[in-house]
Each structure stands twice: as C-alpha cells, then as structure tokens.
Amino acid sequence: MSSNKKKAILFFGAAGLSIAAVGGAITYYYINRRLKPNRVLESVKNQLADQTGLVGSWISHIPAHLTKDRDSRYVYHGALQVVKNGELLNYHFTADTHSGELLSFELRATPKH
Questions:
Q1: How confident is the model at residue 112 (pLDDT cuts 50, 70, 90)?
Q2: Euclidean distance between CA atoms 12 and 78, whole angstroms
Q3: Which residues sit opposite 24 in a β-bridge?
C-alpha cells in the first residue's frame, strides 16, 4: 500500500470519528437538556383556568430526582397562590424538567389569620 493511500485512510478515519463524536455530543445534549424553570412556571400559570386571582408563584431552580413505580425522572417543584372568594389558596405542583409535563397539582393547607 502506498504512502498516499495510508494517509487518505488515516485522514478519512479521523474525519469519520470526529463527525461521530460531534453527532453524539449533539444527540446527548438534546436528549438530556432541561427546560428553563421560568418557562415551566409560565406554562403552569397558563394552564390555570382563571388567572385573575393569581397573586404569587415560585419554582425551584434546582431539579429534584423523583422515583415512582420504576419511573425515574427529574422534576421542578413550585407553587401558585390564588385568592378566591377572599381566601388565599396555595396550589403546589410538580413538573417534568425535560417536557414540562405537569405531574401533580394539589391544594395545600393555607394558614388561617
């Protein structure tokens, strides 16, 4: 085999490996990327039927690991405060970090003044 053929094989082999590595890195990024917490919070607020009584909201920016029935995922925890009929209600939610899917939305006890 001539020297030029060896160089060509080496060049195309290295180029192929480089392309595969970049493709793998891009795929890994898109599979494992997380939605920004504020985007998830806005989505949850938009799902609330009546936003007129919405007075407060928060979301944790640190993902929590949740395992339930052999299903393992990372989630954001947050809450919405709504005034309804003069009463302050706290709704806590859990949303998937990758899809933004709302996994739980429940009314929690509110302190009486």
A1: low
A2: 51
A3: none
Cα–Cα–Cα angle for 5, 7, 12, rounded to 5 degrees = 95
SS3 12: helix
Query: Is residue 107 scored above 70 in pLDDT?
Result: yes
By three-state DSSP, how is residue 4 classified?
helix
Tallying the residues shown for the chain, one arrives at 113
Identify the residue whose tokens are 């429940």. Answer: 106
Collapsing DSSP to helix, strand or coil, 110 comes out as coil
**Closest to 76 in 3D by CA, of 66, 86, 85, 90:** 66
pLDDT in tens, 75-105: 999 999 988 888 888 999 999 999 899 999 9
Q: How far apart are CA 12 and CA 62, in angstroms?
A: 43
Q: How is residue 37 written in tokens? A: 């917490």
